[in-house]
Amino acid sequence: MYSQTKIAIPIFQPKIDGVIEVANDCIKKGADILEFSIDGLKDPNYKDIKEAIEEINFPMIATNRISTEGGSFKGSEEERIDILYKCCDLVEYVDIELQSDDEYISMIHDTGVKTIVSYHDFEKTPEIDEITYIVNKEQELGDIA
Fold first, then answer.
1. Helix/strand/coil percentages in the chain, nearest 5
2. DSSP code of residue 10
3. Which residues contact 86 (CB under 8 A, 6 or more apart)?
4. Which among 54, 63, 45, 55 is positioned nearest to 9, based on CA atoms?
5. Rounded Cα–Cα distance for residues 121 and 80 (Å)
6. Rounded to whole angstroms, how far apart are CA atoms 4 and 2?
7. Which domain holds residue 93?
8. Using CA atoms, how far apart are residues 65 and 72, in angstroms rounded to an integer?
9. Residue 2 falls within a domain, yes or no?
10. pTM for this entry
11. Total domain count for the chain?
C-alpha cells in the first residue's frame, strides 16, 4: 500500500522575513512540506506572499484561517478567499475550511490545485454521524478530507 504521509510543518509568523527564515530552518530539519499560515501575517498582501513562496521554493500548503477555525485573518471573507485563490498557482495544496461557501471551495478546486477541505471544532468532538457527514462532504468538495 502506498502512503502519502508527509511531515508538514506550519509556518505562523507575523512578518514575511520571519516566514522565510523559519521555512528555511524547517527545510533543513527535514520537512516534507510546509504549511504557510497566511493568517499569521500582521499585514498579509499578495505581493509579499508570492515573493516569499517563490523565494522559499519548496512544496507548500497555503492556509488562511478565520477565527472560528482557529485562525487570525482579520479581513473580509472575500479578501481571505481572494488571497487563497491567487496562491493556487504557487503552491501544491490549498487548505480551505468546510464552513466556507461551497462556491468558494469549488472556485479554488477548479484551478487544479489540490484542495484540503478541513473542519475544526475546538469545543467538542462531534457525534459519529456528524463526523461521517463532515468527512463525506469534505471528500465530495475537495481532494483531501
1. 45, 15, 40
2. E
3. 46, 49, 50
4. 63
5. 20
6. 7
7. 8-141
8. 6
9. no
10. 0.90
11. 1
CATH of the domain at 103: 3.20.20.70
| Residue 51 domain-assigned (yes or no) | yes
Over residues 37-66, the pLDDT tens digits come to 999 999 999 999 999 999 999 999 999 998
- Residue 70 Rama label (left phi>0; alpha psi -120 to 50; beta): left
Task: Please tell me the distance from the alpha carbon of residue 44 to that of residue 136, in angstroms, as a whole number.
Answer: 32
Residue 93: inside a domain: yes
Cell of 88: 493556487
Quick: pLDDT tens for 11-42. Answer: 999 999 999 999 999 999 999 999 999 999 99
Q: Provide long-range contacts, Cβ within 8 A and 24+ apart, for 117-126.
A: 117/141, 117/142, 117/144, 117/145, 118/69, 120/69, 120/70, 122/70
Q: Report yes or no on 68 lying in a domain.
A: yes
* CB-CB neighbours of 75 under 10 Å: 14
Q: Greatest CA span in the chain, whole angstroms?
A: 44
